[in-house]
Amino acid sequence: MSRRRARELTLRALYAHEMSGNTLDNIINDMIVSCDEEKRAKDFAVALLEHCVRNKKECIDLIVKRTHNWDFERIAIIDKLIMTLTICEFLYFEDIPTKVSIDEAIEIAKKYSTEKSGQFINGILDGVLMDLKKQGRIHKKGRGLQEN
Predict the structure, then answer these.
(1) Would you tell me which of 26, 103, 121, 124 could form a disulfide with 22, CB atoms 3.0–4.6 Å apart?
(2) For the segment 62-94, what is each residue's pLDDT rounded down to a tens digit?
(3) Whole-structure pTM over 0.70, yes or no?
């Protein structure tokens, strides 16, 4: 299973959590643990989901700061969730280059959202990434992962 598939699994679980109000443990068990995927992929999906839920407010604040001319409530929920999981990758997954995270977000948006969502998400995430870099909050480790 690729990380993209794990991200898609996380997106669906995040959407279910958002819409159902079920506990995070129930969502994890029903949508991730019980699926027929590699353990490594499920572990990544669970970790990403937990970061997204735990840091939702911070991610929303970062997105709102970059959506000056948009009513946040009118942004598609899928787009918000894709941006949230990408921001969590920026902040909490030191082994994933930010460019990869953004590229994956765009591809997932093309599959799960509107035709123009990829471009919209790219613009917002570029701005959020710039803000996080200015704050010194991006810490990538490993060969080829040092950020400029």
Answers:
(1) 26
(2) 999 998 877 888 899 999 999 999 999 999 999
(3) yes
**Structure confidence by residue, pLDDT tens digits, 9-54:** 999 999 999 999 899 999 999 999 999 889 999 999 999 999 999 9
Asked if 125 and 92 touch (Cβ cutoff 8 Å), the reply is: no
- How do the domains of the chain map onto residue ranges? 3-134
Tokens 């669970």 locate to 46
DSSP 71: -
Could you please state the CATH topology (level 3) that the domain comprising 3-134 is classified under. N-utilizing Substance Protein B Homolog; Chain A (1.10.940)
Contact between residue 132 and residue 102 where contact means Cβ atoms under 8 Å apart:
no
> What are the two backbone dihedrals, phi and then psi, of residue 141, each rounded to the nearest 5 degrees?
-125, 150
